[in-house]
UniProtKB/TrEMBL annotation:
This is PPM-type phosphatase domain-containing protein. InterPro entries: PP2C, PPM-type-like_dom_sf, PPM-type_phosphatase-like_dom. Transmembrane segments: none annotated. Residues 77-442 form the PPM-type phosphatase domain. Residues 15-28 have a biased composition (Polar residues). Coiled coil: none annotated.
Amino acid sequence: MAAMTGPGADGTGARQGSSHLTASTDLDATPNQLPLAAVLDASLQRRKAAAVSSVALDGAMRDFTLVLSEGAGGGCRWAVGETQGRRGSMEDAHVVCLDTDGDGSGRTALFAVFDGHSGGEVSTYCARHIVEVLQAAPSYAAGDMPKALKEAFLELDRRMQDPHSRPELAAYRQMAKADKRSSQQAAADRDKHGRDEPDVRNGDQQHGSAGEQEEQERELEVPAPRGEVLPPSKHAVKRYGMVDESGRYVGPGAGSTAAVAVVRGNQLAVAHAGDSRVVLCENGVAQALTQDHKPDIPAERDRIYQAGLFVMQQPGGVARVGGSLAMSRAMGDVKFKAPELPPDQQAVTAAPDTTQVRLGGQAAAPGDPAAANHPRLLVVACDGLWDVMDRQQVCNFLELQLSSHGGDLRAAVRGLVHEALRHDSAASAPATDNVTVLLVQLP
C-alpha cells in the first residue's frame, strides 16, 4: 500500500524507476515523481506508479509496472522491487531505514516488508510507524533487539485498536480505493485506445517512431502525481473498521503480515508474523530465518482452538482460521481477536517469532574471489515471491543476476520480480499476488 524510505535510507542517493518486463527507465528527479525520504505523503507518489498497470482480468500478461528503488549507507547496499502484478490492487508496503537510532550514526538499519490483506491500510500503518514504535520499545535502548521487536509488533497492533488511530486507517483505506479506481481507469483508457503492447516473452520488438515509444513509456511509467493524503470525512471514519455490540470501535478488519530485519554491527535480528519471509544467503546457501505461520502447524492450531476458533481445510485446499484466513499470525485482523485474551493467546496473534544471527565467519572475506561470486545477501519478501520460488532458487537466481550485471542490485531485483511474474514450472504457476522484494547486500 505504501512504500517508505526512512531517515537516511537514500544514503548515496536513491534512484527510482519502473519497468514492464523490459529494461526500466529512470525517472527524472523532480519533486512530483520521486519521494522525499521519511515523508509518507511524498512516498505514496511512487506507490501510485506501482498501482497503474494494464493487467487483463483473465491474468494475461500484458504489462506489469515494476517500481524500483535503491540506495546505500552504513556498509549496506539495498534495492527494492514492487509490483501490483495480477491483483486488482496493491496492498504491500516496505520500509528501509538506515538510521534507525535516529542519531545520524547509521549504527542500526531496519528493513521490512508488510503484506496486507482485505485492504492495504494495515500494511501502510505498520510501514509508517514501525521505526518510531521500535525506537520507543523498552528493550530497544537496552540493546535486546529481538525483545524490542516483539514489543514493537504488539504495540503497533494495540495502537490500531485505539479509536485515535481510526481516522488514519480510514484515510489509508480511502486512498487505496482511489488508487484502485485510477488503476482500473488507466487500464480501460489503454484498452479503449487499442494500444497493443509487445510480447517481450516472444521477442517482439516495439514499432513506431522514437517519439511514439517515448510517449508510451511515459504513460506507463510516470502517472499523474498524487497530492497529499486527504483526511477522510467524518462519515468515512465512522464507517471504518470493526465495532462491538455497543458500536465502539475495536480495530481494523483488514490485516497484514510483517517481516522485519534489523542489522546492528554484526548482529542481525529478525521478527515476523505471517507468511512473509526473511532469508540470508551466505556462500551460496540460503538460510531460512523465518517459518511461515500457518493454521495447520500443531502449535498454531492448538492456540487457535484454545482461543475459541477453529481451522477449516477443504480437500486439496489450504488450512484457514475460521474458514477464511490462511495465516495464524498477523497485524490487525481484529475480528479474529478476543478482547479478554492476552496478545500472545489470540487465535490470530501479532506476537512474532524472533531470531538473532551473528554475522561473520561464514561469508567470504573482502578481496577473496569467492566474495564476488557469493555476496552476503538478505532477502525480505512477501509470499508473492515465495509462492513460486523456494529460497535456494531465489539465492541462486540473485547470484547469477549479480554476476551478469556487475553486482547491480537493482538489476538483480528487477530480474527476480520479472521471474516471479512469469515463472512457470511443474511445482508452481506464475505469481498471481502482489510481489515485493527487498534485497540487501550486507558487509
